[in-house]
Each structure stands twice: as C-alpha cells, then as structure tokens.
Inverse folding.
C-alpha cells in the first residue's frame, strides 16, 4: 500500500523568503507520479506541480519547484519569494499506478503554510 | 474557461433528510471523482466514475450514492445524512489523455447537518 507522509502540520514564512514543505512517500512500485496541491481557505484544490518517477530533472513551475530525491523517497515542495497569497494548506499526493486507468491518488495530511508580512 | 463547477457551494440539511450535491465539468474528462474532506484532514475518495463505470471505495458507507447521467454531470446523493457527514465534498475530474493525469477540482460544497 502506498503512503504519503507530511511531518509539518504548520509552517510560518516571512514574505519574500523561500520555504520548503516536506513530503516523503512509500511505494514498492517503480513507476509513479507525485503531485502537490494548494488548498486556500475557500476550499478549492489547486494543482501546482507534478513529478514523474522517471523524470531525471526536478519539476519547476514558476515559483514552485519540486526537490525530488528518489533514493530517499522524498518530494519536497520549494516555494521561492513567498507571497501573502501563498497562505494555504498544501497537500502532497501520489498517483497509485496499480489503480489502473482511473489514477487513484493518495493524499498526505497536509501542511498549513502561513506567510507573515 | 473550462472548469469544474459544484452547486451549491454551501448546503444545510437536517439530520436524516436526503440531500443531493451536483458537479458539472466543461473539460470533457472521462473520469469524475467524489471526495469527502473533514476539517484539517486530507480528502478521502468516496467513489469515481470512469466513463459510465462506477467504482466504489471499499470503506464508503452505503448511505452515499452517486449518479452520472452523462459525461458532464455527476451527482452525490446522501440518503440519510448524519452529524458525522458534515464535511466539504469535493468533485474532481481527470483525463487519461493528458500527460500528468492530474485531477482538476471544483470549489467544493460545504455540507452542514443540523
């Protein structure tokens, strides 16, 4: 069974500083995908970034980058130049390849990030 | 813009009174999902449709049912809501044709049970 672990229930960061949100995972599959989602207080889950297990380079999307260390089974999200609008809940998730075509996703418990002015 | 729409955004029902939540999408995705998310917890998958094929998670209570009359719409029916069913309900879609197969989420419906 797959498992996603986010050990930081809450984080604070100063505006304009960078922050790293931790995510470790456990799977016996060789092929898998890792996602990060942002959930503001409004409730909508917003897709941020994706890393495939066979991707050799770390994924980047604007101010978001994923620090993928396959041997350590970690997929940390790095947010550069934090903005007040980054205050939200952040979920790490992994796609379960054994789920077949519909792509079941397992979510971590989330990290609540608060950006301080 | 293509999107996932959920109505209503807020729903209040009484204990035991059936309630239906709706989800529609303009993305033409073949997979639709319903998640339940309680306060400060991760979303929990209830079930999903792959086209018209319905797939229930093993631990989803019988009290929860779903319908997908066409590609665009999907409904979540709670037959007899209990106080423990108060939660945010998230609808999501994905397409197997897309590279990442990431799920696109709607804004959610926050259900209150009195």
């Amino acid at each position: 069974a797959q498992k996603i672990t986010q050990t930081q229930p809450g984080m604070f960061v100063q505006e304009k500083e960078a922050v790293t949100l931790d995510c470790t995972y456990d799977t016996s599959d060789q092929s898998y995908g890792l996602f990060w989602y942002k959930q503001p207080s409004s409730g909508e889950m917003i897709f941020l970034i994706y890393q495939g297990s066979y991707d050799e380079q770390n994924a980047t999307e604007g101010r978001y980058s994923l620090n993928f260390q396959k041997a350590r089974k970690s997929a940390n999200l790095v947010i550069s130049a934090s903005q007040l609008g980054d205050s939200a809940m952040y979920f790490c998730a992994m796609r379960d390849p054994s789920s077949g075509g519909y792509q079941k996703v397992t979510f971590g418990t989330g990290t609540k990030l608060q950006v301080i002015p | 813009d293509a999107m996932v729409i959920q109505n209503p955004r807020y729903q209040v029902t009484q204990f035991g009174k059936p309630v239906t939540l709706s989800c529609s999408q303009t993305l033409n995705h073949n997979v639709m999902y319903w998640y339940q998310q309680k306060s400060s917890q991760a979303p929990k998958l209830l079930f999903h449709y792959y086209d018209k094929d319905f797939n229930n998670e093993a631990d989803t209570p019988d009290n929860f049912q779903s319908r997908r009359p066409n590609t665009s719409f999907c409904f979540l029916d709670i037959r007899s809501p209990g106080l423990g069913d108060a939660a945010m309900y998230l609808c999501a879609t994905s397409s197997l044709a897309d590279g990442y197969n990431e799920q696109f989420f709607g804004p959610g419906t926050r259900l209150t049970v009195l």
About this structure: The mean pLDDT of chain B is 92.
